[in-house]
Each structure stands twice: as C-alpha cells, then as structure tokens.
Amino acid sequence: MKILGIAAPFGHDHAAALLIDGKVVAAAEEERFTRKKHADGQLAVNAVKFCLTQAGLKPDDIDYVAHPWSFEALRARRLEYFLRTILTKPSRAYKKFFRNKRELQGQQKFISETLQAAGFDMSRTKVKWVEHHLAHAASSFYFSGMDEAAVLSIDAGGELVSTLLGYANRKGIFKVKEIIAPDSLGDFYATMTDYLGFERGDGEYKVMGMAPFGESEKVNLRHIIWWDEKRKTYHCNDEYVWVNRSKRFRPEKVYSKKMVQEFGPEREGDGLSEPYIHIAAATQKALEEVTCNLIDTYLKDILQKHGNLCFAGGCALNVAMNRVLLERPYIRNLWVQPAANDSGTALGAAAYVAAQMQDTCEVMQHAYLGPEYSNKQIEEELRKWLFPFSLEKDICAGTAQLLTEDKIVGWFQGRMEWGPRALGNRSILGNPTIRGTADRINAIIKFREKWRPFCPSILKEHAAEILNSTHPAPFMTIAFMANPEWKKRIPEVIHVDGTCRPQVVDKETNPKYYRVIDEFYRRTRVPVVINTSLNRRGEPMICSPADAMLMFKESGLEYLAIGDFLVRKK
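Structure (tokenized):
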C-alpha cells in the first residue's frame, strides 16, 4: 500500500511523508525547500514532489492521501468547547459551533491546492481524514517497535482537543482521556514564550534552555495554569493564556495587559536577567508538573504493566520534560517521534491509515529521510563559487583532525534529517573539550544567544558511561544528567544544570558520521563531538549544496565538509 501523508492543517509546519508497505521511503518539511521557517502560509508542494521523486512514483501510483484533521472530531466536541468558552471567548465559541463547515472547506482547499500543484488529479485521488491527535499518537507508536504502550499527545490544539492520553496495541490506538482547548499546555507555553521575548511557535525551546538559569519558586503561575484535583484535569486562565485581541498587550502578541501589569514589561534583547529567568523556570516547572499529574492519573496503571510510553505533539520536543518523565519509576521506555511537532502528523496520518489497511510499519531506526546529493552534483555547485575546495581521500579523518585542532566544521552528508534536530547529516561540528568553542559558534556562525546550549553526538559504545543511562537516545529527544566526571571533560555540551541532550550514534545507522567521531576519539580519547544544526538563526536547516554554500559565504564558518569535498575560506 502506497500512502502519502500531507500536513499540517493549521497553516504552519507543512510537510509530506510517504509510506510504502509500512516502510518510510521519504519525509521532509516544506521549509527546507522554500527556506521560510515553518513554511507559514505555504503549501507542502515541494515536499510532496520530493517524496514522489524519491520513490520513483507518479501521483496516480498513490493509493491514499492521509491528512491529520477530522471534521467528525470537530463536530463531536463542539458543544463541550462552546460551553467552556462562551463566557470568556464568545467569538471563538460561536465560530466553532455554528461555522465549523468553513473550517472543513478550508481543509479541503488546502488538500486540493497542494495535491493539484503536485500533479494530482483530485477526481482520482482518495483522501483519508485522520483525527489530529490520533495522527500524533500514530507517528510515535507505530514506529517505536513496541507491541503495546501508553500514548500521550500534547500540543496547542487539534480540531478542538489539546491533550490526548490513551494506549495502543496491535488492535489500534484507544483513548483514555481528552482535554479540549483553550485548556492547553501548548498554548500556555507559547504564551509565556511570547511574553519572554521569543517567537511563539519557534522559541519554546529557548524558554526551556533559559529555565535552568532561574528559580521556579520565585514566581507564582498557579493562577495562570493549575491542576484541578477534584476534576482530575488542568485549567488555563483565559485572562492570561492566548487572550482575546481586546485583552492583548499588543495586537500581534497573545499575552495580556494583565500579565504585563503583574510581571512587568516583556523581556527584550538576548541576555539573561531577572525576573525573566525565574518566569522561564516557573513555566517549565508548570509544564512538567501538569504532565506528570496527567500521567499519574490516567496512564500509571497502563504503564505499570509494561513501562512503555510513546509521546508526540509539539510539547514532546521539550527534552527537559522528557528527562523528568523518564525518571518516573513506572516509565522504563520512552519513544518520542523525532518530528513530534505538526510536521510529524504527515507521517502519523499515513501510519494510521496504513494500520487500518493491515500494513505493519517498520521500526524507525533513523531519521535520514530527506534529499541527498551525489559528489557530482556537489562539485557542480562548488564550481559556481570562488572558495577553494579539494576532493579528500578520507573526509572523515580530515574532519576529525580539524576538530582536534579546534576548528569548527560544517558537515553536509547523505540524506537530510526529518524533524527539527540535526543528526549528523546537516550539522556544524566542534570540539567539546575546549572552552569557548560554543561561544564562537553562537557568535560568528549561528548568530544566536550566547547562553544557548549545544548537543553532544556520542559513540554508542561510550554513551552509558557518559549519560549514566542505557536508554536509547538516537534522536536528541531526551535530556540526561551527565556523569560528573564527563562534565569536566566535555564542558561545551553540558548545560548549566548539568544536563545534555545527546544523539547516540551507532555504526549501522550512520557509518560516515560514526567514523568522524571515532577518528576524533582516536586522537583525543573523547568519543564526543559538538553537534548543532547547519543553519543560522531564524533559518531552516540547510537542505541543498546551494543552501550550504550560501551559509558558508555569509557566516564565519571556515570549513565545510560536503560530500567528499572540503571547502575552505583560506
């Protein structure tokens, strides 16, 4: 069965993924092709065309197109939403209850325009509609390799649901509890992101990174979001969280005038200061506490049977929270979809339909699912630029030697990663043992805040010693408390709280990247390199050789290992 998933239904993070008989053949985000972060307002046309080209298929070869949105789900919960919002958000309440067919028409238009632009004949195209949070859950469970698991999906909101808790097995995915917006952990975190001076929908991970610098007990947010023990759910205060336009401090922001009156003006600049670091810490703490309460209440009995939790939705990319979850005694195995945000619902919707058609999805061993370029294609691009380059006999050993000499190297190899994390194919690499390396990358290459942490890529054979854990970590989706001995040896990949967000690299899934780290280990006895995404602040991850060369030209990057070529600035 050939199933194409397209997403997302809410105007951002557009993507496409292709499953053939349960195998992920291709998956990519539209932003990588158009170079517009999150592809806001765009269609997933380039992503769809790439998936078809990668598989050697024509539009007529596709059996089903899956889309992660359901009109039936919207209609089923509209009364509950209406009663929840009629007093505080009356305009939204009326729109969802009385004008929901407009939403259906908008989704139909998105599907039709996307597919027609990619060459599909809509009269011969079969479209399957998949409930948004079921698509999230499917994107995690069906690729985890688990026979049964508890499932959790948390984001800003789907049709109306913001949080889904349930379980999954070979018979399907089953709901235990749903929470509807505007009670939304995703909206709460996005609102605080907005207030803290970051771009909502893109800067939430910065709030997570800022949080360890603050003290959560210094700020009280319990009147903004709280756990209701009687009703066994959480609530968001509509006077603070994603407020109506009339209550906003500024029209383009979603936090309220009341928040500014209480906490002071929004944060500005790139530095760390009070009270904002404490607000970030309290925000992170609230997310963790509410999520743990949800799991304790609705999933604990399920988890005590097998210990397996599959997690997706935008909040699943919060690696600090994932560390807290993994520390729960009844969670032994945590599997997070590497593209846990809305782009991942393209894959999840396809997987959900595949399961209905009795296809079994293969375990996701890696996320190298995007475009790749041959040495010939790379050389043709390099000759368009004025930088010297050479064809290397051993690009891995050469790169390792540069890292040993404290050089920073762009690393462009193989198929582009699926999801927001660079996993060793579109990366910037550095030496984690030399203090100041991270600051240099932030200042002259990434052009981002100097307090932002970097991730370690670790050889699999050494991961348990460095992380004090044997839990799998191939996708940078979980943070770990680093071994104290290693904190001193690799300071440039350890955050202020002693944690790191690792990618554990094995020889089978990425032999070329493994060899770079292994060669570095042979020279330094350190089986770790700094790994951050090959892009600059505000840009999508690099996709093509042309993208890489433009970044090389316009940043302080001095070396680029692209295919088997090494490009230099001097």
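Residues 481 and 498 are 6 Å apart (CA to CA). The radius of gyration is 23 Å.
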